Structures are given as C-alpha cells and as structure tokens.
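Record filed below.
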Amino acid sequence: MTDKGKRIPVNQCQKCGQCYAIPTYLCLKCHSTEMAEETLSGEGKLSSYTIIRVPPLGFEDQAPYTVAIIELDEGLKVTARLENDPVSNDLELLDPCQFIKHKDSVYWFQLEDKKTGVTR
C-alpha cells in the first residue's frame, strides 16, 4: 500500500497493553489509570460497512457515504469513513485498507486496489 508512514493514534494502557480508539482515562480490562497516547500501524482490513443514503442532520451534503468497521493488523477495531469509496456497492469484506487521517474525531481510511496493490 502507499504511504505506509501513516500511523493511527490510540490510547494504550501502560499496565496491560490494551488499546482504545476513543480517549479514555481508565483501562476497562485491568482498571489501571496509566494510559498513554501511542500509535498503531494504520494497516487493516474491512470488517463491516454500511452505506449512508439518508444522513442525519448536518451531513446531508455528504450523502451517500460509507461508514466502515476497520480491523487493524494489531486487532483493534475502529469505526471509520472510507475516503475513496464511490459508494459502488462492490466492497468486499477483508479488503485491505490504509489509515490516512484523523479529522474532527473521525478516522479516515482508503481501500487498496485489488489489481495494483495500491490505495485507490
């Protein structure tokens, strides 16, 4: 995939290593308060998705758009938007994808082109 330097910011428990995509001050696994900001590879695969055709208020100008669950290579699942999906309905589960940005509390990913191996 292109741009392998992009890493995804997460909170990680310094006691047990559990990672959280949302800011947290307490580890739900071991109850430690020793949390620190870390980064993960940003490499993952499409675990699930839905196409939003009737958006909530404030997002009308963005519809239709795809909201996905991305399973990172490290095992953490995050909710994300797919930047380069034209809402084509030809997405396949387990398609590889790459983190590209974190904007307004939203993770954005790009899908890898199956033919060329680069983000599309």
